[in-house]
Write a structure and sequence with these properties.
The complex is a heterodimer. Chain A has a single domain (2-173), classed as Rossmann fold (3-Layer(aba) Sandwich), CATH 3.40.50.1360. Helices cover 31% and strands 20% of the residues of chain A. Chain A contains 6 helices and 8 strands, in the order αβαββαβαβαββαβ. A 5-stranded parallel β-sheet of chain A has the order 4-2-1-5-8, with helices on both faces. By secondary structure, chain B is an alpha+beta fold. Chain B is extended, with a radius of gyration of 10 Å. Classes of the chains: A alpha/beta, B alpha+beta. Chains A and B meet through helix 5 and strand 8 of A and helix 2 and strand 1 of B.
């Protein structure tokens, strides 16, 4: 499924949204994909913690083994600019998503985690959903650091196919 | 389960987040 999305033919830019946590690595280690990634493929993250990109909590860092394995060019990876402030980082990511759509881009697949409490991406509460209205990416302040930047329902509604990846009956995604 | 998520938008954040998306599925790793 992921390999299909990464190699799909077509003229317009295409994007895949990958989840946080350890799920991307699980994909790469359980079944290391042998794919030739389309040069039109972009990678976005469902959400990101506001930590440096080399932090063990960084979804970007967690995804590197998968991205390296399949050879996605760094310029196609839209990581959250976590050195910025929370609001600025969300705004910057939103601008990248808007530019992607304006260029005719299509998000063909979003792989999302699903928390035991029913949250996905970093949308935890009603307030998070309200804050996300009208945005492509939104800041999610958390009671305990790190804060998050998350894609929004507006972005997910423009996604052709959403797949929740679940691994156990317990805590599925943080 | 996905139907339950998408059709329970008042109580489950994930359902509301993806309620408008064209196609929603669930994949459970073995």
């Amino acid at each position: 499924m992921l390999a299909d999305a990464l190699t799909a033919p077509g003229e317009s830019p295409q994007a895949v949204v990958i989840p946080g946590g350890s799920t991307p690595n699980r994909c790469s280690t359980r079944r290391r994909p042998r794919v030739i990634v389309s040069p039109r493929v972009h990678i976005f993250y469902s959400d990101e913690r506001m930590v440096p990109p080399d932090s063990p909590q960084s979804n970007y860092r967690l995804s590197r083994p998968l991205l390296d394995a399949i050879g996605v060019p760094p310029g196609r990876v839209h990581r959250v600019q976590t050195h910025l402030g929370l609001a600025e980082a969300a705004e910057a990511l939103g601008a990248e998503i808007e530019a992607f759509f304006r260029a005719g881009g299509v998000i063909t697949l979003a792989l999302l985690g699903l928390g035991a409490d029913g949250h996905t991406a970093s949308l935890f509460t009603e307030s998070d959903l309200q804050r996300a209205e009208g945005r492509w990416a939104s800041p999610t302040p958390r009671p305990e650091p790190p804060d998050r930047v998350t894609l929004t329902p507006q972005t997910f509604s423009r996604t052709q196919r959403i797949v929740f990846l679940t691994a156990t009956a317990g805590r599925l995604h943080d | 389960m996905i139907d339950a998520l998408v059709n329970a938008p008042d109580t489950i954040v994930a359902g509301r987040a993806v309620a408008g998306a064209p196609r929603v599925e669930m994949w459970t790793a073995p």
